[in-house]
């Protein structure tokens, strides 16, 4: 029986390895670019203005815990910042503080209304209500002193 020998080309195997790595790198870069493209960009900013009842004051006549005698409608207008100030519709508007947790969604004109009944603790004569606005495609907006609550 005759023994057969198979000839191999070791040079071709070495030349194929770099080409394989180049192909893998091109595919990896394409995948990374696709993933980065899918991440939403939030570089747009917005502004929110309390247009009604930004300051609420009542005189309870004492320094004890106090719940205000009536409810107040707080109207907030949300607009985009930049060259054009377009209304931001569908933004979630939250008011938090002074015993208040209220939420609403802006309409097509960028306006939301939240009804609140403020509360002040014993010996607290002033407080502020924080405004938080979130909308798709925009950076979150916060105003620590959007509504001021006073005990006269």
List the helices and strands and how they pair.
Elements: H1 10-38, E1 46-52, E2 55-58, E3 66-67, E4 72-80, E5 92-97, E6 100-105, E7 111-116, E8 119-120, E9 126-134, E10 141-151
Parallel strand pairs: 2-10
Antiparallel strand pairs: 1-4, 3-8, 4-7, 5-6, 5-9, 9-10
Protein architecture, described:
This protein starts with 9 loop residues before the first helix and ends with a strand. It is 19% helix and 41% strand. The chain is of the alpha+beta class. It has one helix and ten strands; from the N terminus they run H-E-E-E-E-E-E-E-E-E-E. A hairpin with a 6-residue loop joins strand 9 and strand 10 (141-151). The longest helix has 29 residues, at 10-38. It is elongated and about 115 Å long. It has two domains: 8-39; 46-151, Sandwich (Immunoglobulin-like). It has a five-stranded mixed sheet with strand order 2-10-9-5-6, with no helix packed on it. The model has no long low-confidence stretch (mean pLDDT 85).
Name the descriptors.
single chain, 152 residues, alpha+beta, Immunoglobulin-like, 2 domains, five-stranded mixed sheet, three-stranded antiparallel sheet, 1 helix, elongated
Q: Kindly report how far apart the N and C termini lie.
A: 114 Å
Text of the CATH class of the largest domain: Mainly Beta
Tell me the number of helical segments per DSSP (H or I, 4 or more residues long). 1
Over the alpha carbons, how many angstroms does the gyration radius reach? 31 Å
Largest sheet data: 5 strands, mixed
Helix-and-strand structural type: alpha+beta
Order of helices and strands: HEEEEEEEEEE
CATH architecture of the largest domain: Sandwich
Q: Number of folding domains?
A: 2
Low-confidence stretches: none
Mean pLDDT: 85
Q: Give the spatial strand order of the biggest sheet.
A: 2-10-9-5-6
C-alpha geometry: elongated
The helix content is: 10-25%
CATH topology of the largest domain: Immunoglobulin-like
Number of strands: 10
Strand content: 35-45%
CATH homologous superfamily of the largest domain? Immunoglobulins
